Amino acid sequence: MPSYLALHASGELEKRIAQAYARLRACDICPRRCGVDRTRGETGFCRAGLEPIVASWNVHLWEEPPISGTRGSGTIFFTYCTGRCLFCQNYPISQLGVGQLVSTARLAEMMLELQGRGCHNINLVTPTHFVPQIIAALPVAIAGGLSIPLVYNSSGFESVETLRLLEGIVDIYLPDAKYDDPKVARELSGFPDYVAANRAALQEIYRQVGEDLICDENGIAQRGMIIRHMLLPQGLAGSAAIFQWIAQTLSPRVHVSVMSQYFPAHRAVGHPVLGRKITWEEYEATLDAFAAAGLENGWQQETEWDLEAN
Ligand code: SF4
Hints:
Layout: H1 4-10, H2 12-22, E1 53-60, H3 65-68, E2 73-78, H4 91-94, E3 100-101, H5 104-116, E4 122-125, H6 131-143, E5 150-154, H7 160-165, E6 172-175, H8 182-189, H9 194-209, E7 214-215, E8 221-230, H10 239-250, E9 255-259, E10 278-279, H11 280-292, E11 297-300, E12 307-308
Parallel strand pairs: 2-4, 4-5, 5-6, 6-8, 8-9, 9-11, 10-12
Antiparallel strand pairs: 1-2, 1-3, 7-8
């Protein structure tokens, strides 16, 4: 049973909603700390205001096996983002603002529709800038019978204070570890101090849910964390150093999902470094680094068509 049901029953969920909305008055929901008053319609870097904006919601079958399971993960894609990746594959949603303003009551209905379609979980994609609104949707969703785990699927650029608001609400965290070098993170994704924020966030998530991915009798995740790491051309993501940090600072037992499906999109098309896929050599070197770091659990995508022939 998801832990948000207990928080709702105790009254703690309502307190968290109030705390989260209070922070929108001088927004510090993410590490950018823009300080704008989103309750009065002001917008900061992410361009998100008071109401949630949703680009799409659907059954998704291609997440990691414990997330998608057999019936799929109920993804809700939020519009806008706290980053500006040059290579973002979803840039019309994340950067151009494609999506619809919805009420928190409608957001709750989306959760219930996805649960009604048999999804194993509600998968909140790029949720960071809408944390207060997501929490606010839960009492309505719970009243309607929501009872499946919540997955928080993010860039990993998170405020520890915001993650603390989510303790006991989110069951499964799916954060990225995108970069090992803050300069590269700033140049390619526009994140200020990504590495420090990301590592503090991963440590907080680890404190909340620990190293084990707890699954039910059918292998469907119920609680835990999976760190996602996408390879970039020419080693720009710093994969080996990230794997070592996870193994040494968190635990070698933490699940890590290595993603090799990078392709040039958006402003990476024609880019001298980012304008190609990953090579087999880069992919194999990354798997070697995964093993050398001593990581014990995770997934690797290795479809031939994902990689650059050379
Ligand atoms: S959530 Fe948006 S407005 Fe708030 S601090 Fe982050 S980028 Fe700025």
